[in-house]
Queue: 2 jobs
Job 1
Amino acid sequence: MSKAGGFHHIIRRLSMSTYPQPTAERANELVANYNRCYDLVQSIAKQYRPSPVRLVAVSKLKPSSDIMGLYNAGVRHFGENYVQELISKSKELPKDICWHFIGGLQSGKVKDLAKHIDNIWAIETMDSLKKCKKLASLLDGSRAPINIYLQINTSGEDQKSGFSKDDLQELFDTVEFLKSDDCKHLNLKGLMTIGSFAESTSGDENQDFRCLVDIKAIVDEKFKTNLELSMGMSSDYEQAIKQGSTNVRIGSSIFGARPPKGT
Ligand SMILES: *Cc1c(COP(=O)(O)O)cnc(C)c1O
């Protein structure tokens, strides 16, 4: 979660040959964008909380060479939305990348995530007890535990995934499962949400983020946890940090606009 640059430039030449590389111009652009976001994230974070906020660089639909441009400067946390794209990138890129899966999680793809990506660091979009149990049953301790964020549909929009914000029973059952002795290879890390477009542009306190903060308080109290909050994207991360986010997911402000999926 550090700023790009520093001593990493020295070891950069060593890794240049084997991985896909961006042009020098593109690398400079990416690092400048990342550092601009990083500085803003940490300067806001400093006013609101004692520890730094994790910046996840969301690289979906962007080439592996872009990822290497930031990797060479020391960035390790990257977010991807599509299982097949994540599998192919993870195969061709360095193994010390900490991948965050942040896309819609289909039951049929849980196995691919568990089996094909050794260095998956977090699944941020876990949205049912059933998928959680399925994932747990596929892991045997041969790899580091996977961090799990439970996604909450705080805006209540039909097209968004996540546990219900109104009936918390399944969320409670899932937290209980994750904390039980039956579940050694998953680590409950926090809660995650995607704010609605309307809330991200309102300019006032974001009610979706507020909802996630309130649910965290309930879960922390009930289960004696201290959950992280993954909330905030390019359009609303400043507000998210003000409201307590510990993990922001930023794509277009670092990599530029994305091509439409499927091109
Ligand atoms: C694409 C995506 C992001 C990044 O979005 P930007 O607006 O490009 O910063 C963050 N979180 C999730 C869940 C996403 O799907």
Job 2
Amino acid sequence: MASIRVVFSALVFGFLLFNTLSEAKEFLVGGSKEAWKIPSSPSDSLNQWAQRSRFQINDVIVWKYNAKDDSVLQVTRNDYANCNISSPIAQFNDGDTKLKLDKAGPYYFISGAKGHCEQGQKMIVVVMSPRSRKQPMISPAPSPVSEFQDGPAVAPTSGANALSCTLMMTVIYWGWMVFI
Ligand SMILES: *[C@@H]1O[C@H](CO)[C@@H](O)[C@H](O)[C@H]1NC(C)=O
């Protein structure tokens, strides 16, 4: 019976570890409250920050800015490249914007304030595919991102995650009750 106990202990430990590692993270853009602004130099750009970060599905990005004079626009790759603020996919101007990254692939953000995007207040966030587990290389200039166009990514939803957690816990619980 002792060995079964060890196996189940290992299962429970593994499950808890998995849960910790796969927990969704919150990213404050640029790592500080003042970061959503025109960068002072190219090396200070938000893309430098974004490329250092590993974004995964269900992570949340948070922008802090003064809602009176700035906003966040999610735009297409083309509108990102041209700083076209006229028809964003989504726009936020509440000063404390949270966006959940619910699928893999690139997300394009520009400032909605006139002239800011042209001066570098823009950012590409690439969410890793759950299949490849590695961050694809991106270049600041738009290039064909064929990797993201090869059909729908198999993205686990949080609902499916919760279900698998519940199933796992049930199995472990009954295993424990029956064998120990
Ligand atoms: C910006 O986008 C709109 C809508 O897609 C388009 O009509 C317009 O020509 C674009 N402007 C520029 C400068 O590209």
